[in-house]
Write a structure and sequence with these properties.
By secondary structure, the chain is an alpha/beta fold. Among the domains are: 122 residues, Rossmann fold (3-Layer(aba) Sandwich); 116 residues, ANL, C-terminal domain (GMP Synthetase, Chain A, domain 3), CATH 3.30.300.30; 226 residues, Glycerol-3-phosphate (1)-acyltransferase (3-Layer(aba) Sandwich). Helices cover 38% and strands 18% of the residues. It has 29 helices and 37 strands. The chain has a seven-stranded mixed β-sheet with strand order 4-3-12-11-13-14-15, with helices on both faces. Strands 31-37-36-32-35-33-34 form a seven-stranded mixed β-sheet, sandwiched between helices. Strands 21, 22, 23, 24 and 25 form a five-stranded antiparallel β-sheet that branches. Helix 1 packs across helix 4, helix 9 packs across helix 22 and helix 23 packs across helix 24.
Length: 959
C-alpha cells in the first residue's frame, strides 16, 4: 500500500574542464588540499556559522556533510586545482580528507592542454593571537565548540594541569589529557546504553573530578548536559524531588547520572518521569573505557541547559549553544584581561552558571588553572576559600554577595594570620543583589592581608545571556550611588542625594555592557529612557539564548523586537548601569516603589532574626486594591512574649529603612523561607505559600515525605502501565487492520493497468485505515501544489511517511526510492505499479544516468517525491540534505515544494512496529523556483537545498 523505506538522491558531477570559482592550480600538498575542501564546504553551507574545521582525519560524510553529489564536485575541483586525474574508485573508497590526499598522490597527470586553472582563492587569515612567525595562538580563538577547545589544549599542552580538586584531606590534579580520556570513557558508555545525539542527560553530582568528565563525556556523545543540584537536606526531599520532576520532564532527560548515595532519590525521580529510561553513576558509565564513535558537533548545537528559578510546574530551561558560551566567555575574557597565567579559585556549585561557565568553562577556554572545592566546604568553613586563594596564588574568584558577608563575619582575626591575598586580582560579586556595605567591609577587613582596593568587582549577568552582561573597569573602587528616596520611589528618577540625606537609597554600579552587547531601558509604554531614569532592562548580544527549552509560551514573553527582557529594573548614570531590583519583586504601595532587598537587609540585622533568611513581598489587599507589605523572617524564638518583642523590633527596622511600617510581620521556624539552589530567596514562592495559608506550617518528617513520594511514584507507575497497555492494544488493533487491508491492496494494485489508478485506489484504502483507527490527518497548504510537474521534498521520520503522502496528496506523484528495494519481488512489484523511480545510491556512473532519466520524467509532466535526508533515526530534527532532488529540479527548471510531516515519528518511531495513537499533519510550503541562470547546476542545487531546509527547519522548530 505504498509504504516506502529510506531513499537517497542521485547525483551528477559538473561538466569536465569547468573552472571551480576561486581556485588556482598549485603543487599538491596537504595544506593545499585542505584549502580546496574548505572552499567547497563554505559554498555547500554558505552563510552557516561554525563550520567544522577541516583536518586530514575529517570524514567527508559524517564530519563535513558531503553527500555523493558534493563529493563528486569536490573531486572535480581537486583534479582541476592540481592538474591530475584521480582513480575512478576514489568516490567510493575515499572516506576522509587524508584518503583524498593519498588518492591524489597516486593519481595520473591530467591530459595536456586541458584547462584546469581556476581563479585565485585567498587563504584564510591567520588565527587571532598568532605571532608573525605563525606560532600557536594563546587561546583557541578559532574553536567553534567546547570540544574543539579541549582538542586545542590536547594539541598544545596535554600534560598541563587544568583542574585541581580540593578535598578535605587531599588534592587531585587533572590535566587536559586525563580529562579527555575520562570524558571519552563516559561518552563510550553513554553510546553503549543507547544515548543518542541531542538526547538530554541530567547530571546530579557533587563537585568532584567525575563531574567534569561526565560533562565532557555527554558533549562527546553529542548529547545535551542538564545540570541539576543534588539533594541537600532530608527535611526538604519532597520539595527537591517535585522541583526536579518538572525539570526532567521538561528536558525529557533519558538518563540521570548521580552518585550511589543519591540513588534512592534518583529512583523516586525516575518513577515519576517516564522519559528517564536509566540511572547510572560515572563509574558505571566509564567502567569499560574505550573511545566513543565520533559525533559531528556544530556551533549552534546546545552545550547545556541551565534551568532558572521557577515553580515546579513551569520550569524554564535556558538553552545555550556552544556559540553562545564561547561568545560570552570571550567577551568576559576581554573585560578582565584573563589569561592562562591566571588561577581561578572556586567553591561555586557546578550546577550554577557562575560556577560552571565563569569558573570552569571560562578556564577551559582561556587556559587558566581552576582550583575547585565543594560548596559545602566553604559554607562549613568560609576561611577555606581564602586559604585556597592564598595557597594556590589565586588571581580570580567569584561569589554571591552573601559569601563576602559570611567571610567578614565568620573568619576570626586568628585565622587571618599569615594569609596573603596580594595575588587576588579580581573578586567577582554577582548572582544576587550587591550590597554597598558588604563591598566596603570586605575590602577593609582583608586589606591587612594584602587585598588591594578595587579587587571586589560588582558584576551583573543572567543565564539568558550565558553568564555576564555588565562589567566595570578593573582596578577602581566600586561606585556607590546615593539617590533621593522619594523621587526614585514615586517618579523613577535617580536624582543624586545630598551628603547629609540619611534616607537616601544606595545602589552599586555594575559597569558597562561587555563588548558586542547592547543595553536599553524602557518605561511602561515601551519608550527608551535617558540618564538617571529607572526602567526595564533589556539587552541583545552574541550570547543571547534563542529561548527556553520546550517552553514556547515563556520564550515568547522573553523577546521584544529582538531584545531580551531581563526581568530586572535599572538606571544609567554617567554611562554606568545600576541594577535596582526584579520587576516581579518590586512592591507598589501608596504610589511608591519599595525594594525588597533593602528591607530584607535591614530586617536581617535585627537580633533574633536569621540573617539571609528574610523574604519581603507584596500581597494584594482586595479591599483597598493596593499591596500589603509582608515581612517573613526566620527565627528560633518560640515563646509568645519573645516573638512579640521580635515583631516590634522588625517593624522598627522597616520604618527606619523606608519610613513606613510593614502591614504584617510573620515569624517562621528555620528553613521555612524558600530559596533557589544558589541560595537566593524565592519571594514569589514564599508569597504563594503565604496566600495559601501554609507558610510557617511545620514540614512533614523526612520519613513522611519519602512515603508520600513513594506513594506518588507507585501511582505514576500504575498510570504509565495502564497507558502502555492501552497503547499496545491499539497497536495490535491498528497493525491487524493494516495487514488485513494490505492483503487486499497488493493484488488490487498489481492488477490495475496504470500507476495513476493504483495511486488513487491506495489513497482510498489508506483513508479508510485512518478513519478506522481514529487517526486525524490535518492538511495545510495543499492549494500550493502547482498543476504542472514539480519536485516535492519531504522530511523523513518514519516508515509511515509514504502512506501519509499517498493519503494526503490529491493527485498521483512518483516516489524516488533506493535501488536496493528492487531485490524484494513483492515490494518491487508494488512500488513499480505505483510509478516509483529507482536510483542507485553508490555507483557514480549510474547516478549520472539516473539524473538524466529523472529530468526526463519531469519533462513528461510527472511529479516526483524525494526524501532528501536519505534516512531517518530515533533522534529529532532534520538530518543534512542530499543534493540529488535539487539538482534534478534545477536541470529540469521545475519548482521545489518543501513538505513537512508532523506526528509520524511519535506514532511509529524507528525500531518499532506497533503504531501508537497520534495526530498526523502535512504542510505544503511555498514553492521554490530554481535561479533564472541555472548554468551552474551545482550552485543552483545548493541554493534550492538551503532554502528548502531552512523553510522546513523553521516550521519543525515552531512545534
Amino acid at each position: 500500500m505504498g509504504a516506502l523505506t529510506k531513499t537517497d538522491p542521485v547525483h551528477k558531477p559538473l561538466a569536465s574542464g569547468r573552472r571551480a570559482p576561486g581556485l588556482e592550480r598549485t603543487p599538491l600538498t596537504a595544506a593545499g588540499l585542505q584549502v580546496i575542501v574548505e572552499a567547497t564546504l563554505r559554498q555547500l553551507h554558505a552563510g552557516a556559522p561554525g563550520l567544522p574545521a577541516v583536518t586530514l582525519d575529517s570524514r567527508l560524510d559524517r564530519d563535513l556533510g558531503f553527500d555523493s553529489l558534493a563529493r563528486t564536485e569536490l573531486l572535480l575541483r581537486i583534479e582541476q586545482a592540481f592538474g591530475i586525474r584521480l582513480p575512478e574508485d576514489t568516490l567510493q573508497r575515499a572516506d576522509t580528507v587524508g584518503d583524498l590526499l593519498d588518492a591524489a598522490r597516486h593519481a595520473h597527470a591530467a591530459p595536456a592542454g586541458e584547462d584546469t586553472l581556476p581563479a585565485a582563492m585567498p587563504r584564510p587569515p591567520p588565527a587571532a593571537g598568532t605571532g608573525p612567525a605563525g606560532g600557536s595562538p594563546a587561546t583557541p580563538a578559532q574553536a567553534t565548540t567546547l570540544v574543539e577547545v579541549l582538542e586545542w589544549h590536547l594539541r598544545e599542552h596535554p600534560q598541563r594541569i587544568h583542574i585541581t580538586c580540593i578535598g578535605d584531606d587531599a588534592e587531585r590534579a587533572i590535566n587536559y589529557h586525563q580529562l579527555a580520556v575520562a570524558g571519552r570513557a563516559v561518552a563510550a558508555g553513554l553510546q553503549r546504553i543507547g544515548v543518542q545525539p541531542r538526547d538530554c542527560v541530567a547530571i546530579m553530582l557533587p563537585t568532584s573530578p567525575e563531574y567534569f568528565s561526565t560533562y565532557v563525556g555527554i558533549l562527546l556523545a553529542g548529547a545535551i548536559p542538564v545540570p541539576i543540584y543534588p539533594p541537600a537536606r532530608a527535611s526538604q526531599i519532597e520539595e527537591h524531588v517535585l522541583r526536579h520532576v518538572g525539570i526532567l520532564d521538561n528536558a525529557r532527560a533519558v538518563l540521570l547520572v548521580t552518585v550511589p548515595e543519591a540513588m534512592a532519590v534518583a529512583r523516586l525521580l525516575q518513577a515519576r518521569v517516564g522519559a528517564v529510561r536509566q540511572l547510572a553513576t560515572p563509574a558505571q558509565l566509564s567502567a569499560s573505557g574505550g573511545r566513543p564513535a565520533a559525533v559531528a558537533l556544530h556551533s549552534e548545537d546546545i552545550a547545556f541547559i541551565q534551568y532558572t528559578s521557577g515553580s515546579t510546574g513551569d520550569p524554564k530551561g535556558v538553552a545555550l549553544t556552544h556559540a553562545n558560551l564561547l561568545a560570552n566567555i570571550r567577551a568576559m575574557e576581554q573585560a578582565v584581561h584573563a589569561s592562562a597565567d591566571d588561577v581561578f579559585v572556586s567553591w561555586l556549585p557546578l550546577y550554577h552558571d557562575m560556577g560552571l561557565i565563569g569558573a570552569w568553562l571560562g578556564g577551559l577556554y582561556v587556559g587558566y588553572a581552576l582550583c575547585v572545592m565543594s560548596p559545602l566546604a566553604f559554607l562549613a568553613r568560609p576561611e577555606r576559600w581564602l586559604q585556597a586563594v592564598h595557597r594556590h596564588r589565586g588571581s580570580l574568584s567569584a561569589a554571591p554577595n552573601f559569601a563576602y558577608e559570611l567571610c567578614v563575619k565568620r573568619i576570626t582575626d586568628e585565622q587571618l594570620a599569615g594569609l596573603d591575598l596580594s595575588c587576588w586580582r579580581v573578586a567577582f560579586n554577582g548572582a544576587e543583589a550587591v550590597l554597598p556595605d558588604t563591598l566596603q567591609r570586605f575590602e577593609q577587613r582583608f586589606a591587612r592581608c594584602g587585598l588591594r582596593p578595587g579587587t571586589v568587582l560588582p558584576v551583573y549577568g543572567l543565564a539568558e545571556a550565558g553568564l555576564g552582561l555588565l562589567f566595570p573597569s578593573l582596578g577602581r573602587a566600586a561606585r556607590i550611588d546615593r539617590v533621593q528616596r522619594d523621587a526614585f520611589a514615586r517618579e523613577h528618577r535617580a536624582l543624586p542625594a545630598a551628603p547629609d540625606d540619611a534616607s537616601a537609597l544606595r545602589f552599586v554600579g555594575c559597569g558597562v555592557p561587555l563588548a558586542g552587547y547592547e543595553i536599553r531601558l524602557l518605561d511602561k509604554a515601551g519608550r527608551e529612557l535617558g540618564e538617571r531614569v529607572e526602567g526595564r532592562l533589556q539587552f541583545r548580544g552574541p550570547s543571547a539564548t534563542a529561548g527556553y527549552y520546550r517552553n514556547p509560551q515563556q520564550t515568547a514573553r522573553l523577546f521584544s523586537d529582538g531584545w531580551l527582557d531581563t526581568g530586572d529594573r535599572a538606571y544609567c548614570a554617567e554611562g554606568e548601569f545600576f541594577i535596582t531590583g526584579r520587576v516581579k519583586d518590586i512592591i507598589i504601595r501608596g504610589g511608591r516603589n519599595l525594594y525588597p532587598q533593602e528591607i530584607e537587609t535591614a530586617v536581617g540585622t535585627v537580633a533574633g532574626v536569621r540573617q539571609g533568611c528574610v523574604a519581603v513581598f507584596g500581597s494584594t489587599d482586595t479591599a483597598t486594591g493596593t499591596e500589603r507589605l509582608v515581612v517573613l523572617a526566620e527565627t528560633h524564638a518560640g515563646e509568645a512574649a519573645a516573638q512579640a518583642r521580635l515583631r516590634d523590633a522588625v517593624a522598627r527596622a522597616v520604618v527606619a529603612a523606608i519610613g513606613e511600617p510593614p502591614d504584617e510581620v510573620l515569624l517562621v521556624p528555620p528553613h521555612s523561607v524558600l530559596k533557589t539552589s544558589s541560595g537566593k530567596v524565592r519571594r514569589s514562592a514564599c508569597k504563594e505559600l503565604y496566600e495559601a495559608g501554609t507558610m510557617g506550617s511545620p514540614l512533614p518528617t523526612a520519613r513522611r515525605q519519602v512515603w508520600r513520594l513513594a506513594a506518588g511514584a507507585v501511582a505514576a507507575k500504575l498510570q504509565r502501565m495502564a497507558e502502555a497497555l492501552a497503547q499496545r492494544l491499539f497497536g495490535l488493533y491498528a497493525a491487524a487492520l493494516f495487514w488485513t487491508l494490505a492483503a487486499f491492496a497488493w493484488p488490487m494494485t498489481i492488477g490495475l493497468p496504470r500507476p495513476a489508478l493504483a495511486w488513487r485506489a491506495n489513497r482510498r484504502l489508506l483513508r479508510i485505515l485512518l478513519r478506522l483507527t481514529a487517526t486525524p490527518l490535518r492538511l495545510h497548504g495543499i492549494q500550493r501544489l502547482p498543476a504542472g510537474p514539480c519536485v516535492l521534498v519531504c522530511n523523513h521520520g518514519s516508515y509511515l511517511d509514504g502512506m501519509i503522502l499517498i493519503a494526503a496528496l490529491p493527485r498521483p506523484f512518483s516516489f524516488v526510492a533506493k535501488a536496493e528495494l528492487r531485490r524484494h519481488a513483492a515490494m518491487r512489484q508494488l512500488l513499480q505499479r505505483l510509478g516509483t523511480e529507482f536510483v542507485d545510491r553508490f555507483d557514480a556512473a549510474r547516478g549520472v544516468a539516473d539524473t538524466e532519466r529523472l529530468s526526463a520524467v519531469l519533462a513528461q509532466g510527472r511529479s516526483l517525491i524525494f526524501f532528501p535526508e536519505g534516512t531517518f533515526g530515533i533522534g529529532q530534527g532534520l538530518l543534512p540534505f542530499h543534493l540529488g532532488a535539487f539538482l534534478v529540479a534545477a536541470r529540469a527548471s521545475v519548482p521545489v515544494l518543501p513538505v513537512v510531516l508532523r506526528g509520524q515519528r511519535a506514532m511509529l518511531p524507528d525500531g518499532t512496529w506497533l503504531p501508537r495513537r497520534g495526530t498526523l499533519e502535512l504542510e505544503v510550503c511555498d514553492a521554490l523556483s530554481p535561479p533564472g541562470d541555472a548554468a551552474d547546476a551545482f550552485a543552483a542545487a545548493v541554493a534550492l537545498r538551503d532554502a528548502a531546509q531552512g523553510a522546513m527547519s523553521l516550521r519543525l522548530e515552531a512545534d
